[in-house]
Amino acid sequence: MKKTTLISFISGLVIFLSCQKQHPTQPYPQPDKTSQDKLLRSINWENGMITNFEYHPDSSLQLRKDVTNSSNQSIHFIWKDGRMIEHFNEIDIATNEYIYNPANQITKIIHRLKNNNPNRTELEFDYLPSGHVDELHYFELYEGVKSLTGRSKYLYDANQDLYQIENFDQDGNLRLIYQIESYSPPCKLLPWVFIYPGIQINFSLYNYPVLQKMNRFPAYIRQTGYDLNGTITSQFMLENILTLDSSTVKSLEIKTTYPDSPQSNSSISAEFSY
After folding, report:
1. I need a surface site. Which of 82, 244, 263, 274 has the fewest CB within 10 A?
2. CA dihedral sign of residues 48, 10, 195, 217
3. pLDDT value of residue 37
């Protein structure tokens, strides 16, 4: 399997640390009423990248800007009736659309080209009575034919904490497992701040329907890949080390460890400003 680089984790693993967790009776994105001085304004990364955030007057997220010495990119968030309905990077050719059910849960994410080409990827979520994600199905729609390409199954402990995600291919073969072995202390979260458009690596864990049910950050994650015979083909561990002020995140260090390739081990840190 393709090895994950650390830079991928900047967009895919630091997904949801921020300033306000949604109230459990309103599980999907109502505008955040947190006062403007409590909103996350920027993240300064050790590698020199600066991530800035802009908000609407009602404190709902409007724009994320990633700035480096060589490039700038802006990610836009489109809202309607208190729901985030579209999410895109202005330099990409594709966008994500979000479909909700009457219970205000995201049931489908459509990843399509901005030119309205009918070919697309559709991600469909099934829920448990508790509101936690039960399964995620991946479909490709090509020339009018919709085909299943994969499935993710979510497992929870007695406290309703997610501890494992099992990823299967289109034929039902187990190909990848994420094990969350520990969590951070409780911290304030706003998932939309860090979720990138598109279908990023580790999407089965780092997507809004899964993250919005968490009030703690996964601190130690083990990823294991399998071939069609059930033999382990790859493994790495991710460690997220948070510094908190009460429940507000002040800094984060991300460490990745590859047992079979220690020369690929790496880390990066970031400071949060409000």
Report:
1. 263
2. negative
3. 59
Provide the residue ranges of all domains of the chain, joining segments of one domain with +. 6-40+81-273
Return d(Cα 173, Cα 168) in angstroms, integer.
5
pTM, two decimals, is 0.86
Residue given tokens 């949801």 in the structure block: 16
Residue type at 105 in one-letter notation: Q
SS (H, E, C) 115-173: CCCCCEEEEEEEECCCCCEEEEEEEEEECCEEEEEEEEEEEECCCCCEEEEEEEECCCC
Q: What is the mean pLDDT of each run of 10 residues along the chain (274 residues)?
A: 44 44 39 61 95 93 94 94 94 95 95 94 97 97 96 96 97 97 88 79 89 91 96 95 92 94 95 94
φ and ψ at 36, to 5 degrees? -60, -30
Quote the strand ranges of the chain, DSSP E: 42-45, 50-55, 61-67, 72-80, 83-89, 94-100, 106-113, 120-127, 133-142, 145-156, 162-169, 174-186, 216-226, 232-245, 248-257, 266-273
Backbone angles phi and psi of 12, in degrees to 5: -115, -15
**Residue 234 token pair:** 């790859």
Classified as helix, coil or strand, 248 is: strand
pLDDT of residue 35: 52
